[in-house]
User: Fold this.
Amino acid sequence: MSSTGQWPPPSPFWTDTLPAKTAGMTRPFLFKGVVPASAANADAVLDGFAAIRRAHATGVEITANARVYVGEEHRPDLVDTVLAADTWPEGDFVAWMQEQIGAERFSLVLNTLESVSPALATGLGEFVGALMDGWGVPAGGAELVAFVGNYSGTAFGVHEGYENAFLTHYGPGTKDFYCWPAEEYRKLTGGSGPLYGDYTWLLEHGEYFALEPGDALFLPERVFHVGRQSEFSVSVAIPLYTFPDAAIARGWIAPDLLESLLASEPDTDAGRPSPMHPLSAGPDVLARSLGTVTAAAFTAAAEQAPAAATQHAHQRWNTVLSNGGWQQTENDLARDEAATAFTATALAPGTSVAVRAPYRLIVTGRQAFLRGCEAPADPAVLTPDLVEHLNNGPTTLPDDPALIAAIRTLGATGGLTLTTTSEETP
Assistant:
């Protein structure tokens, strides 16, 4: 049980408590005892690191990665060392890490931890799910970034956070944390770049928080901050990626739209080679030709932009929600292992299946979204009642070859699990 009254934090926390304590999500605030150890803890983070090491040993390509720092120095030369070494003795991770890197104090940063740790993806996924229900959906999803070590200061120095985030702490040591509003930081330092080295003079001007196990610090976007500690501890940040609309349009919508409008095949008008232009005419003839084609494409793009944006928004929305709020990751170790385990199991009438927490099955038209993946769907087979039942599962499969085939397809997303509990299919 957390200080919010229950886990995950209930709707009033998001609609009332969080805005009130943070001045409308603009000021940091430390929520004490929010995260129960059953949802997330230091051992689960180290298990995630062990999964990264396992992938390294077997040559499996994954998105999750580890970075090693000694003081503020990034040491990529030590990554292979800590990934390839024999495992640490139980309860002696710190000494093991010190031996591998040849230094007493260290920082280990683990990115995309949700893709290698089913336990953290599920436990902290409850938090993200409640956040989306009570606050809103981050269009880019959320990520888990772990900070592990006994470092005297965050390896990135005093730096700016570009998105809203929660920093959850699991101890065993206490983390001293300092924050500065952007305007105040610029006045104090004369700029907006990160500050390295001896910045102890700056700490007395910052807002101070002492993070203890189970605490969660809300960090608003564009706030400068740094963490310091004298003992080993583990923290996990949950950044919420709300990309600028312009960035989404630039990175996804516009390229796809222009690619379709300017697509050309050799035997089409658009694919016909341009003529040779006389040297004496100069580049103006070519410029007019290119200008005509470009203007026509942009005119058509302007007409088709609302439909293209709608299509992209629906796809992005369903991708994020079906992935439990987590960002979509191409080389997701936990997803791939779950998919392999599911497809290796025989499905038959009487088999009981359910959607894995915190993921969600969404069927819209003839498309199904599950764990951030898309699959074809027959709405006559994956009916709304069945989808709801699978999401709240378990569901016992009837003697229906079309449904069993659909479940096999969904199982390839890694979003389904076999259960031992029987329940009638609606």
